Amino acid sequence: MPRKPRHRVPEILWRLFGNRAKNLNDAIVDLIPNRNIQPEQCRCRGQGCLGCSSDKPAFLLRSDDPIHYRKLLHRCFVVLHEQTPPLLDFSPTSWWSQREIVERIIEMMQSGCDCQNVICARYDKYDQSSPILELLTSSSWEFLLKRVGHDVMVYLLQQTSIFLPLLGKKHQQVSGPPLCIKHKRTLSVHENKRKRDDNVQPPTKRQWLSSAVDDCPKDDSATITPIVGEDVDQHREKKTTKRSRIYLKRRRKQRKVNFKKVDCNAPCITPSTNGKVSTGNDEMNLHIGINGSLTDFVKQAKQVKRNKNFKFGLSETYSVIPPNHILKTLRPNCYDSKLLMNHIFGEVNVWSTTPSHGKGNCPSGSICLYHSLLKSLKSLIGKTKSSHLKMLLDKHCPVLLLQEDALKSGTTSQSSRRQKADKLPHGSSSSQTGKPKCPSVEERKLYCTNDQVVSFIWAICRYIVPESLLGTTHQMRVLRKNIAWFVSRRRNEKCTVNQFLHKVKPSDFPFFARKELCCMVNGHELQSESIRSTQQMLCTKWISWLFLEIVKKLVHFNFYATESQGGRLNIYYYRKRSWERLISKEISKALDGYVLVDDAEAESSRKKLSKFRFLPKANGVRMVLDFSSSSRSQSLRDTHAVLKDIQLKEPDVLGSSVFDHDDFYRNLCPYLIHLRSQSGELPPLYFVVADVFKAFDSVDQGKLLHVIQSFLKDEYILNRCRLVCCGKRSNWVNKILVSSDKNSNFSRFTSTVPYNALQSIVVDKGENHRVRKKDLMVWIGNMLKNNMLQLDKSFYVQIAGIPQGHRLSSLLCCFYYGHLERTLIYPFLEEASKDVSSKECSREEELIIPTSYKLLRFIDDYLFVSTSRDQASSFYHRLKHGFKDYNCFMNETKFCINFEDKEEHRCSSNRMFVGDNGVPFVRWTGLLINSRTFEVQVDYTRYLSGHISSTFSVAWQNKPVRNLRQKLCYFLVPKCHPILFDSNINSGEIVRLNIYQIFLLAAMKFHCYVYEVSRFWKLHPQTLFKFITISVRYMFRLINRRVRRINTGSSFRPVLKLYKEEVIWLGLDAYIQVLKKKNSRYRMLLIYLKSALSKHSLSQQLSSELRYATDRSNSSSLWKLNY
User: Fold this and answer.
1) Of 249, 345, 1003, 1072, which one has the fewest beta carbons inside 10 Å?
2) Which pLDDT tens digit goes with each residue over 880-936?
3) Are 911 and 895 in contact (CB under 8 A)?
4) Residue 300: CB partners within 8 Å, gap ≥ 6?
5) Highest mean pLDDT: which of 381-390, 505-514, 784-793, 831-840?
6) Whose CA is closest to 131, among 737, 767, 746?
7) How far is CA 272 from the centre of its chain?
8) In this structure, are 569 and 688 located in the same domain?
9) GO terms for biological process (predicted)?
10) What value does the mean pLDDT take over residues 696-716?
11) 383: Cβ–Cβ under 8 A, 6 or more apart, which residues?
């Protein structure tokens, strides 16, 4: 029996209204009162209606109802407010049409002095129209009116709040009071969960958990808690509110006060002590107290955030330890050693109690942990003052010179060596004096490898930390592996203390051994449980301090950590001296288009300085500006909304621009359908691929301002709306601007609304916002000409190009090159097509197919395809000459054509990609286009430069094992584009090959993710098999949803010829082929997968399409990836 579909209420509505939010079908059924009357006694006179029907849901929704009516009942949601009166009367008939009902309700509400209903927004009395009116008078609402009658429809529009689906996970409110949240509301855990029964209370533990609950995996062996009595535990269970937190200044002051409160004369506990605790409380169990400063320190150390790049300000210093580090501020004496002990382990109340041994005079033969630690920490403080630490940095992470610097240093060293050779004594060898100290490498290899960074950190730890605090030899290997794991973390990953304590055993540390803690109090030994818990606590605090105060700060202080342009999420560590040399060499190239500004002019614009950073790439660095601080300015939002409005209403202004793969699909598919309709098959096609050289930096600012001024209107009217968003832990409200158009509904221009995966509701209250052309030109001019940077003590202003990283950069670039195409390129192509037609007509007398071409551009990447070789060749040569009036020239190294050009010696067709199957492809914006059939695949050769693990991050603090199920589904989403599955473009073999390749990449990521997680958790093969089968079945739903929901207009319809069983078979086979290479790790999982594949119905007789998809030669680039 098929499972009944679930129609869940959106999370945002559930949080705000609870059970009062229902879909339209359930809301109507609940509104109609149950009346036990016969159909003959009803107002319908025996014809049957919703009031007298015994099965109201079956009467409201029938099997033969249209699809649009079904979607309205299930995807439209209704909220019944608390003080709403019940439906008193029900009539199955309707005297008016749906449009007349909505118009009269709006006019009736507007006649009142205070109209706060959303249904009245933007209603024009003269035209009797509004965007919401058009939404509520569609054919599905007319169909609903015939089914429910006049009274129910009027009640829904007047007394309830209605939310219609808009785009993705967004909804639009079309009736009721406007939805609003006054302040950002943070939800607790039990509020975030859905309650199916109001009488059921959440568990006791969930009542005191706040929204900031740490989702880290709970492990008793890794927690940092002192040994406390039962009364303290009971007090914690009674806590029902979030811990109050004092202000930052008061917290710092409190830390200083607590830091000074140190017991300098803490005595040693020995068997000869009388057992009395210094607090005077004889009944209290023996425990170690911790002051507030250490507790705060431990709580802050729960998560170690790895930012995408560390702050780089000062050059390298003589020391490798920060000057404000606690080890640099202390001296190797007894007093400072006690301060450091308090800083690491907390303020110890009862290390020992005998006053006679408080000065360190321990009896002979006794083992005192307190004084042993003091001695070791004194050695730790003393060795941090050594100058040998800088030599360790130069030894393990040498400063790498550029090739040019290496040549200069080589020549100077040779000359100096010749000069010194005369001064050396007879018989002395000078072979070592001329050797350069720093090796030379290429620019892209200036960074230190992770192994070099780990070896440096471990060398520092071995030098300054006593061996007894590093543990046994086995424990040293464990610590080094944990340091290597920390250094190899990727961008946006957060580590927890539990990861640092992986495989760390207190018994392997001599200081925390059992014999060190066997002190006597009152003549009785400590219990074994207390000893073990004390060992664990001391070891946890020491390892936490070692990683947070030494390992982490060594990395922060000695390296500049950043991502690379081709390194994806990997982090690269540069010595600060190497980074400075690289930047000093590339700064002249990065500042191309900037001029130096006087100090007087710079002082007036100091507040408008742009933040920037340098991003390493293969042949240098790229300067990326950060305009996040100005993203909330009203002028920027107005300008962006107007430009997006022009993009949607006047696409011809942008020329041949496409903005994503879906936009490329909308432009390409009609062209291919037109070509096939002429002769039944595709004619020979000729491609030209080009890239604009420095597309953003070469833009003429004066020309750009003239282009924008030419198509801007005098005034724009924008709709000001609210966007009520729903996050995992909070709800908030954003103010958005949406373009207005009376002739279209609201959903046409929703691309101006920021699209994300959050559930949200758009509320339109009818407010307008006017933007003038004069203001737009001033704002755009300021963005272009007032972009000021500060390097050291000099200020620079950009005079050419568009600042990269700005929210408007891509749109302005498209408008600029769109004007170039409309004025120069399109006229040239028309003339070239006429010349080609005249030549062909002179050669042949019979009727020929007219020349057809298509030009597309993704920001700065051109793709030209034509049925005429002469036209493609002429366009190729025109691009090579460039366009001097627009300062636009092409990159000579990135041209690609699929035909041989007679005028050049080196053929650009060599830059095409040819797989092991011999099929030639043209590369363009991450896609592989078959130059013979125009079939489209994904370009996976971009992954060849690195490891697959660099393409994703692991949320270590958010239960990564449980998130594996969602991760496997997310791995399928980025490459799932409708252009890959439409039969109008690709054949059945290529459609299935695209699906198979997506599964191959997801299986490689699956292995890398499991390998990362298996370091800390053991994963059961049956659980992994369950997650894989869920993701494989999800793939078919994802393809269907992507193909059906894409907006293609009326030009064509997507064609999907695919079965669910084929997708499941391809997914299982892809996982088996990938995991075969890791047979020893996935032996049991492979047995489950092969068993499921053998039981599949398609395994008995495979089609030719599935055989072609699983052929290894067709996916040769994927099998070369490192995973």
Assistant:
1) 249
2) 999 999 999 999 989 999 888 776 655 555 678 988 888 999 999 999 999 999 999
3) yes
4) none
5) 381-390
6) 746
7) 62
8) no
9) telomere maintenance
10) 92
11) 463, 464
Quote the CA–CA distance of 240 and 246 in Å, as a whole number. Answer: 18
pLDDT tens for each residue of 667-696: 999 999 988 888 778 889 999 999 999 999
Burial annotation 400-412 (CB, 10 A radius, 16+ → b, else e): bbbeeebeeeeee
Distance CA 4, CA 680 (A): 45
**Structure-model confidence comparison of residues 88 and 1014, the more confident one:** 1014
Q: What CATH number corresponds to the domain at position 820?
A: 3.30.70.2630
Residue 297 vs residues 212, 216, 342, 719: alpha-carbon distances, Å: 17, 17, 12, 49
Over residues 984-994, mean pLDDT: 95
Q: Give the chain's length.
A: 1123
Claim to verify: residue 902 and residue 1010 sit in the same structural domain: no
Residue written as token pair 């929901």: 1045
Tokens of 541: 């605090």
Query: Does 924 lie in the same domain as 947?
Result: no
pLDDT of residue 1090: 95
* Upper half-sphere CA count for residue 153 (Cβ side, 13 Å): 28
Gyration radius from the chain CA atoms: 36
Residue 1001 is part of a domain; what is its CATH number? 1.10.357.90
pLDDT for 794: 81
Q: Residue 368, Cα to own-chain centre: how many angstroms?
A: 52
**DSSP codes of every residue in 992-1036:** HHHHHHHHHHHHHHHHHHHHHHTTT-PPPHHHHHHHHHHHHHHHH
The closest of 142, 132, 538 to 348, measured between CA atoms, is 538
**Does residue 199 fall inside a structural domain?**
no
Per DSSP, what are the bridge partners of residue 137? none
Residue 423 to residue 430: CA distance in whole angstroms: 11
Whole-number Å distance between alpha carbons of 812 and 708:
8
- Rounded distance between C-alpha atoms, residue 559 and residue 294, angstroms: 28
Residue 358 lies in a domain: no
Terminal-residue alpha carbon distance, the chain = 42
**Angstrom distances, CA of residue 522 to CA of 192, 360, 531:** 52, 21, 16
Q: Among candidates 943, 915, 937, 914, which has minimal Cα distance to 924?
A: 937
Number of CB atoms found within 10 A of residue 756's CB: 11
Alpha carbons 706 and 701: distance in angstroms, whole number: 9
Q: Among 897, 917, 934, where does a domain finish?
A: 934
Q: Give the separation between CA 934 and CA 930, rounded to whole angstroms.
A: 5
Phi, psi of 734 (to 5 degrees): -115, 145
Domain count, the chain: 4
Q: What is the DSSP letter of 284?
A: S
Task: Output the six-digit token pair for 203.
Answer: 């568990």
Domain shared by 909 and 1046, yes or no: no
Provide mean pLDDT across the span 202-225.
32
**Tens digit of each residue's pLDDT (9 = 90 or more) over 468-488:** 889 899 999 999 999 999 999
Contact 893, 881 (CB under 8 A): no
916 and 1033 together in one domain: no
Instruction: Give tens-digit pLDDT for 250-297.
Output: 555 555 444 444 343 333 322 233 333 233 333 322 232 223 333 333
- What letter would DSSP give residue 149? -
Locate all alpha helices (DSSP H) within 384-507, ordered by sequence: 388-396, 403-423, 450-464, 467-470, 473-487, 497-500
| Angle of CA points 718, 724, 725, to nearest 5° | 120
Domain limits at 505?
Answer: 315-347+371-398+445-519+530-574
Look-up: residue for tokens 């300021």?
Answer: 782
Using CA atoms, how far apart are residues 668 and 685, in angstroms rounded to an integer? 14
How far is residue 934's CA from residue 478's CA, in Å, rounded to a whole number?
Answer: 54
* Distance from C-alpha of 486 to C-alpha of 214, rounded to nearest angstrom: 20
486 and 563 in one domain?
A: yes
For residues 902 and 1000, membership in a common domain is answered with no
Taking the C-alpha atoms of residue 51 and residue 62, their distance in angstroms, rounded to an integer, is: 16
Is the pLDDT at 40 greater than 70, yes or no? no
